[in-house]
């Protein structure tokens, strides 16, 4: 039966939709509107405010791991999955835009893609992006997944794959699940080893990005590349 609560939710969400169309939604209202599609028969305002209070922003919520989201009171498996679907749609959009142009045309786009790819991961992952002579992406490879503070790296496998792809440049990317941790000594040594092996075959290490929470570190900008 369609009751008073249903009338309220329908009217309130209708107003949210109109505010979205008018470009007047606050962040918590935008999240509330989104959650309303996943949880249609419940007042999700307290949930939206609670998520923003915990994570600090919509971006951080979308990049949180599914397992972590499911632990938040009021977020079940289906809602966590819904939010991760939105996250993956955004990733696909970024990747399509990156495929259409050389990466140096908009390095902020590449940086945002790396953040979206790795922020919120509970374990370290190591990714390799292989580029052609025009600096277009040939392949984005998940090289390895490890533990909360370590991921295996095989420099010779990176070189082998670069040669198979006829890649002339490489970007390596990894994450630190603990926010605020910049490149470690081992990270820098590993970077130099990969760079040395790539140089033997005339392949350039364009950059090494490190995602630590919302922060993205660039080895090139920090002058860590030889």
Description:
The protein has 226 residues and is of the alpha+beta class. The protein has two domains: 4-89, DNA polymerase, domain 1 (Orthogonal Bundle); 122-218, Cytidine Deaminase, domain 2. 50% of the residues lie in helices and 16% in strands. It has helices at residues 4-21, 27-38, 45-55, 58-63, 66-70, 77-99, 107-118, 155-164, 185-200, and strands at residues 125-131, 137-145, 169-175, 204-212, 215-218. It has a five-stranded mixed beta sheet with strand order 2-1-3-4-5, sandwiched between helices. A hairpin with a 5-residue loop joins strand 1 (125-131) and strand 2 (137-145). Helix 6 packs antiparallel against helix 7. The protein is elongated and about 65 Å long. The mean pLDDT is 90.
CATH architecture of the largest domain: 3-Layer(aba) Sandwich
Fourth-tier CATH superfamily name of the largest domain: Cytidine Deaminase, domain 2
What is the beta-strand fraction?
Answer: 15-25%
The DSSP helix count reads 9
CATH topology of the largest domain: Cytidine Deaminase, domain 2
The overall pLDDT average reads 90
Strand segment tally? 5
Q: For the largest beta sheet, what order do the strands appear in spatially?
A: 2-1-3-4-5
Kindly, what is the distance between the CA atoms of the first and last residues, rounded to a whole number of angstroms?
A: 70 Å
Which series of helices and strands comes N to C? HHHHHHHEEHEHEE
CATH class of the largest domain: Alpha Beta
């Amino acid at each position: 039966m369609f009751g008073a609560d249903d009338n309220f939710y329908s009217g309130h969400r209708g107003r949210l939709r109109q505010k979205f169309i008018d470009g007047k939604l606050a962040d918590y209202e935008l999240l509330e509107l989104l959650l309303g599609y996943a949880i249609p028969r419940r007042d999700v305002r307290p949930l939206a405010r609670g998520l923003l209070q915990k994570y600090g922003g919509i971006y951080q919520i979308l990049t949180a791991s599914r397992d972590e989201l499911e632990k938040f009171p009021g977020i079940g498996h289906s809602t966590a999955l819904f939010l991760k679907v939105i996250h993956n749609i955004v990733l696909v959009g970024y990747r399509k835009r990156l495929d259409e142009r050389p990466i140096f045309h908009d390095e902020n786009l590449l940086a945002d893609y790396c953040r979206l790819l790795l922020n919120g991961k509970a374990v370290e992952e190591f990714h390799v992006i292989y580029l052609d002579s025009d600096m277009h992406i040939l392949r984005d490879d998940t090289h390895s997944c490890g533990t909360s503070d370590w991921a295996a790296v095989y420099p010779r496998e990176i070189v082998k794959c670069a040669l198979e792809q006829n890649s002339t440049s490489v970007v390596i990317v990894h994450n630190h699940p603990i926010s605020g941790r910049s490149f470690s000594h081992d990270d820098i040594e590993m970077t130099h080893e990969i760079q040395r092996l790539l140089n033997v075959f005339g392949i350039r290490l364009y950059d090494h990005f490190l995602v630590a929470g919302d922060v993205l570190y660039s080895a090139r900008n920090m002058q860590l590349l030889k």
